[in-house]
Design a protein that fits this description.
Helices cover about 15% and strands about 40% of the residues. The protein has 2 helices and 7 strands; from the N terminus they run E-E-H-E-E-E-E-E-H.
Length: about 170
């Protein structure tokens, strides 16, 4: 889903535009934070490294595609924010112009406790419908965030990308 949210802040207005979604789980906020910092390999892609502190970089690989992200914000059990600093996105049937479309976009996961459940609000700021990669990236987030991460938090087993599972519905 595409949403535009305007937040009044002391320093002015900030506009957030991009893909947004959320999941709810009975897992703790600590479990969610660990999934979003050190266990990406168990729900998103098994070809990545862990993050520990602000300024760290993590590279997420999907075959020939990769995105390098820098950690912008970390708040234990509450927030993980990454910004894309390098990108090489390839997808059969899409033009080569998609390769760098993620550059400068931000991934932000906000973890909240609501009535006995943990909610993770996610926004991929900058992933907008005007990008040529939007539809395939939305499918990817719908699969990896809404399905695989939720499954991982609920059962301990996600369905991350591996070189063995490159079906179109599993490929970002």
């Amino acid at each position: 889903m595409l949403r535009c949210r305007v937040n009044n802040k002391a320093k002015g207005l900030s506009m957030i535009v991009g893909y947004t979604s959320h999941i709810r789980t009975l897992s703790t906020s600590a479990d969610a934070y660990i999934a979003l910092t050190t266990n990406f390999n168990l729900w998103w892609t098994n070809s990545c490294n862990k993050i520990e502190k602000i300024g760290d970089t993590v590279i997420f690989r999907f075959g020939a595609t990769y995105w390098e992200m820098r950690v912008e914000q970390l708040k234990v059990d509450r927030l993980v924010e990454l910004v894309c600093v390098d990108a090489h996105h390839e997808h059969e049937g899409l033009p080569s112009t998609i390769q760098k479309e993620w550059l400068g976009t931000k991934l932000k996961w906000v973890i909240r406790n609501l009535d006995g459940v943990t909610q993770i609000d996610f926004v991929h700021e900058g992933l907008v419908k005007e990008l040529e990669c939007y539809d395939i990236c939305k499918q990817g987030w719908d699969y990896y965030f809404l399905s695989s991460l939720k499954q991982y938090l609920d059962t301990g087993t996600g369905t991350p990308y591996t070189n063995d599972n490159i079906k179109p519905e599993n490929k970002t």
